[in-house]
Structures are given as structure tokens and as C-alpha cells.
């Protein structure tokens, strides 16, 4: 589904949304991505697309100037994502078209496989396996229609101001990308290290933004019409991974690096590239390998399970080999391909080492280092996610306005950040550029009015709140409530053993206080169920009926 701003001549207005049932969690999944598919759908006259049923043979779909066709994709089976994208652009006759595809991991129904979109991704939740189950190898879209706007002159004026604002305000993003957070997050003792066993990584100087900028950066990667270009294109120039190239980001670096005990940036780039080609979510893939490394070091799995791989923390080659094992479902890789939930159900005795919420493993932050992040992971509708769950880093670690270890006030903070993110994601713009168009927690709505002709100013946050409660109602319908919001044992039962926050604990009792405040703030009951009063206030009553 595209948003009302998707495809308009505004900075980074290329986002669109995928919604499905998640193979990784078994629950609700929404995913937000850049790329050209959303824009091209609108140029074809569509706001979105619903794909039902499944093919008897491998198929891809083309949408050209609004005409939909189903094509034989048998020759694409087994192909990596990059190769398939080129074929899909050819199929609609333009490399300006939009395309999405899945890699070999999704063909094998790996539950942590992703959907590659014009070299960006619907990364989390295993949406790739949904396409795999439909035998749908990809989709290509191209249209030349004009996307109407209510006030073109005003939109033009807003665009000029926003581009200027972003060039002046986002210099660090352009120069260093999101890797700029690697070092501060580590210094604050919040960096997941060796399967979240501790929160400070001693080898950070070899993989932080300065090391990347000085030794690996070969250019920027930008989503369409984005002056920020926050993607850092990195290339390995020497050593065993020479020639490897990937777009690196904070989360991938944190999880493929410190969380696997790896300080060789060459191995991180090569692993990132491998995940992209095989169509594996880099974050969940890295966390599954980190789990395997801990199990191996504890003697709970052996080389017999890993087919000879010395699966230890810090072993870059093992990281790459284990990712391949998962994508190919070989050896222990077949079990790991089932995701955290699948492993837990097959091996309940491994629970102390399984780090996930609702089946999704976390992003590259340890919540024992800032408690709003604990709520983020716990209450995100799709699992332990830092995006839709609410990115509290700026508020808790940078603004100076919050004590990161305080419990009070975190419920309303997370609630507000989540609602902000929900409305911004539904617009079709990138969260990084939102401020340049006054989409803050006190939104002006001028851009929406110029685009659509309707006054939106005071409604945006309410729309965000409605989205979040509606998604929660889907979870409630599926039987998920407070119990499903609990954090894994590692966060609630283990004190941080070393580093800047050594000894720090977040007990179950403390976490329950956070949850209570959050539910109260949302107007849900103490079991995490959306109440009748809240449904009525948000205009959701009829949905329940
Ligand atoms: S800020 Fe980064 S993620 Fe957002 S649109 Fe620009 S390049 Fe893409």
C-alpha cells in the first residue's frame, strides 16, 4: 500500500507498506520500505495491491500502465535477488520501473527471509517466505501517469524549503550514515554483545563510523529523491573478503558485528552482502547465528550439527558459513531457519539463550541500558522492533530530558513515539526527513493539506493512535495480550555482567510497572486489551462488532 504522499515530488516520499501475517512470529506484520514500487503503482492509478492465493508454478507479476499480467518465473528459481531485479526491470521495459523480489532463502520458506525492493528491503518478520509460499518470485511495476496534487505550487514551495533544511541539518547522516550511533551506543553500555550476554564491545574502534569512513566507504546510497543519502556503500579493499560490497547500517553492523563477537569489518560487509543476495533479514539472520555461537560455545550443539563449522564468537568465516546453512536449510541451519519461535518450540530447554519478543529477535540495542527501549521491544506490534516499537534513543540517551534508568514517564513517552511513527509511516515518507516537512509530535499538517486538499493538522497524531490500537486489536483477536509483551529471560533475569553499566538489572517487577503505565497511557486494560471506551474514542468500535 502506498501512502498519500508516496510518489509526490517531496524529499524521500517513496515509502510504501507491506502488511501480512508474519512467518517469523505467527502474528501481525507491517513493514515499511523505500524503492520505486509504491510510486510506480500510483503512476499506474493504484493506491495498493492485494495478493491472494498461490501459484501452481513459480510466477512473477507485471503491472504496466495499469495492466496486470502473470508470467512464468521458472527460469528465475534459485536466482539471487540482484540478478532477478534486472530481469524484472526488463519485463516492464524500463529500468526506471519498480521491482521487488525474493531470494533463494524465501524459496525454501526460511522464516527470516526478506523481500528485496529495488535494492532496499522489507526486512523484518519473514515476509519473503509469504511470497515463497505463493511461489511468487517477484513483481515489477511501471507507469507514466501523473499523480495528482491539490496545490502544486505549495507542494513545490515545501519541497524547496525541505531540501534546503535537510542539506543543512543532516550532514552527519550524509557523511557517516546511521553508523554514527555505533560508538555512543557502545560507550553508554547498550551495544548487544555475544548474543546479548553483555552490552559493551571491546573491538568497537575497528568498526565504528570513523573506521568505516577512513577505510571502507566508497560512496553514498540514496533512496529516490532523498538529499540525505544516509546509506554508506562500503567495499572491502584487502584481506579474505576483498571485493565484498554492501550498504551498511547501524543495525546490521551492531548485530553482525558485536553481537557475533566480530570486529573484522570486512567480514561484516561480506555477511551483509551475502544476506542481501540470499534474501535473508540481516538482523534476524545475525541474531540466529549469535544464538548458534552461544550454543556451540556452551557445548549444546557441536560440529556435527554445524556440518564442521567452528561456530564461535569472533569467527567471521563461521558467520558467513552459518548464514548460508540457514538459507539452504542444511544441518542445524534447518532448525534456525524456523526462527526463534520455531527453535523454542523444538528445544524449550534453550529458552535462557533465546532472545526475542513474540518471535522476533531485537535490534542492536540492549534494553537494560535504557528502559523505554524495553517497552519499545515489548509493545511493538510486530515483535522486538525498534522502528514501529518506538525509537527512544534521541529522547532517552541524547536529549538530556529523561533519566534512562527511570521507570516513570516511559509509558507515555513510548506511546507518543509509536503514534508519531505510525502516522509518518502511513504517509509514505521517510522518518529521517519528517522534520523538514513539520511532521513532528506537534505536526503542522501543511504538507498534507497542499497534497490532498484536506485539513489534517490536528488529526495526524490521532490517526497514529488509531493505527496502533487497531493493530493491537488484531493481536488481541489472535489471543495476544500482556503475556505476549514480556521480555526474554536474558533481559529480565540476568544483570549486565561487565562494561559501563555492569550490574544493571531490569527485573520482571520493574518491567511490569513500565507495562502498567504504558497500558494506562494508551487506554488499554492492564491485560493489554484495547478497552471499549478507547475503541469508541478512536472510532474503532464498529471494527470490533
Ligand atoms: S534518509 Fe536514508 S533511508 Fe531515508 S529516504 Fe533518505 S536515504 Fe532513504
Walkthrough of the structure:
The chain is of the alpha+beta class and 545 residues long. The chain has 3 domains: 127 residues, 4-Layer Sandwich (Aldehyde Ferredoxin Oxidoreductase,  A, domain 1), CATH 3.60.9.10; 184 residues, Aldehyde Ferredoxin Oxidoreductase Protein, subunit A, domain 2 (Orthogonal Bundle), CATH 1.10.569; 178 residues, Aldehyde Ferredoxin Oxidoreductase Protein, subunit A, domain 3. It is 40% helix and 10% strand. The protein has 23 helices and 11 strands. It has a 6-stranded mixed sheet, with helices on both faces. A 3-stranded antiparallel sheet has the order 9-10-11. The chain binds iron/sulfur cluster (SF4). Iron/sulfur cluster binds next to loops. The site of iron/sulfur cluster has 12 residues, from loops.
Summarize the structure.
The chain has 545 residues and is α+β, with helices and mostly antiparallel strands.
Which distinct ligands sit in these coordinates?
Answer: iron/sulfur cluster
Stretches where pLDDT is under 50 for at least 5 consecutive residues are none
Count of DSSP H/I helices: 23
CATH topology (level 3) name of the largest domain: Aldehyde Ferredoxin Oxidoreductase Protein, subunit A, domain 2
Key terms:
Aldehyde Ferredoxin Oxidoreductase,  A, domain 1, Aldehyde Ferredoxin Oxidoreductase Protein, subunit A, domain 2, 545 residues, six-stranded mixed beta sheet, 40% helix, binds iron/sulfur cluster, Aldehyde Ferredoxin Oxidoreductase Protein, subunit A, domain 3
Amino acid at each position: 500500500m502506498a501512502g498519500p504522499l508516496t510518489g509526490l515530488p517531496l524529499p524521500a516520499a517513496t515509502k510504501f507498506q507491506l502488511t501480512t501475517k508474519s512467518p517469523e512470529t505467527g502474528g501481525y506484520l507491517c513493514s515499511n520500505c523505500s524503492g520505486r514500487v509504491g510510486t510506480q503503482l500510483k503512476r499506474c492509478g493504484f493506491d495498493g495491491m492485494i495478493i491472494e492465493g498461490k501459484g501452481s508454478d513459480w510466477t512473477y507479476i507485471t503491472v504496466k500502465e495499469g495492466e496486470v499480467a502473470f508470467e512464468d518465473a521458472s527460469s528465475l528459481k534459485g536466482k539471487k535477488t540482484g540478478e532477478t531485479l534486472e530481469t524484472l526491470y526488463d519485463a516492464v521495459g524500463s529500468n526506471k520501473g519498480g521491482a521487488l523480489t525474493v531470494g533463494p532463502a524465501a524459496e525454501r520458506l526460511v522464516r527470516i527471509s526478506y523481500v528485496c525492493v529495488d535494492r532496499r528491503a522489507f526486512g523484518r518478520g519473514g515476509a519473503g517466505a509469504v511470497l515463497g509460499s505463493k511461489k511468487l518470485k517477484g513483481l515489477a511495476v511501471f507507469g507514466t501517469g501523473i499523480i495528482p496534487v491539490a496545490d502544486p505550487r505549495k507542494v513545490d514551495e515545501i519541497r524547496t524549503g525541505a531540501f534546503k533544511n535537510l542539506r543543512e541539518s543532516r550532514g552527519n547522516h550524509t557523511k557517516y550514515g546511521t553508523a554514527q550511533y555505533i560508538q555512543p551506543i557502545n560507550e553508554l553500555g547498550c551495544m548487544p554483545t555475544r548474543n546479548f550476554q553483555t552490552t559493551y564491545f571491546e573491538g568497537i574502534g575497528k568498526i565504528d563510523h570513523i573506521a568505516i569512513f577512513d577505510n571502507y566507504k566508497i560512496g553514498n546510497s540514496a533512496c529516490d529523491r532523498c538529499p540525505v543519502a544516509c546509506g554508506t556503500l562500503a567495499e572491502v579493499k584487502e584481506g579474505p573478503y576483498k571485493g565484498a560490497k554492501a550498504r551498511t547500517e547501524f543495525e546490521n553492523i551492531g548485530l553482525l558485528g558485536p553481537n557475533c563477537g566480530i570486529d573484522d569489518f570486512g567480514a561484516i560487509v561480506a555477511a551483509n552482502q551475502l544476506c542481501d543476495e540470499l534474501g535473508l533479514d540481516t538482523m534476524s539472520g545475525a541474531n540466529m547465528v549469535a544464538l548458534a555461537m552461544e550454543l556451540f560455545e556452551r557445548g549444546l550443539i557441536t560440529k556435527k550439527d554445524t556440518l564442521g563449522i567452528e561456530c564461535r564468537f569472533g569467527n567471521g568465516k563461521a558467520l558467513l558459513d552459518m548464514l548460508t546453512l540457514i538459507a539452504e536449510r542444511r544441518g542445524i541451519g534447518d532448525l534456525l531457519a524456523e526462527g526463534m519461535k520455531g527453535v523454542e518450540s523444538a528445544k524449550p530447554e534453550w529458552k535462557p539463550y533465546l532472545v526475542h519478543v513474540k518471535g522476533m529477535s531485537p535490534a542492536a540495542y540492549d534494553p537494560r541500558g535504557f528502559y523505554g527501549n524495553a517497552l519499545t521491544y515489548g509493545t511493538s506490534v510486530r515483535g522486538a522492533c525498534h522502528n514501529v516499537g518506538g525509537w527512544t534513543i534521541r529522547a532517552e540517551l541524547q536529549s538530556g530530558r529523561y533519566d534512562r534508568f527511570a521507570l516513570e514517564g516511559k509509558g507515555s513517552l513510548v506511546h507518543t513515539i509509536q503514534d508519531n511513527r505510525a502516522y509518518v509511516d502511513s504517509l509514505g515518507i521517510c522518518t529521517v526527513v519528517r522534520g523538514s516537512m513539520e511532521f513532528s509530535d506537534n505536526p503542522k499538517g501543511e504538507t498534507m493539506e497542499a497534497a490532498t486538499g484536506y485539513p489534517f493538522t490536528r488529526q495526524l497524531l490521532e490517526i497514529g493512535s488509531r493505527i496502533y490500537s487497531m493493530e493491537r486489536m488484531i493481536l488481541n483477536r489472535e489471543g495476544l495480550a500482556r503475556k505476549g509483551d514480556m521480555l526474554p529471560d536474558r533481559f529480565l533475569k540476568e544483570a549486565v555482567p561487565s562494561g559501563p553499566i555492569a550490574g544493571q538489572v531490569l527485573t520482571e517487577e520493574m518491567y511490569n510497572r513500565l507495562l502498567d503505565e504504558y497500558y494506562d497511557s494508551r487506554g488499554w486494560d492492564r491485560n493489554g486489551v484495547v478497552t471499549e471506551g478507547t475503541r469508541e474514542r478512536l472510532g474503532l468500535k464498529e471494527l470490533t462488532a
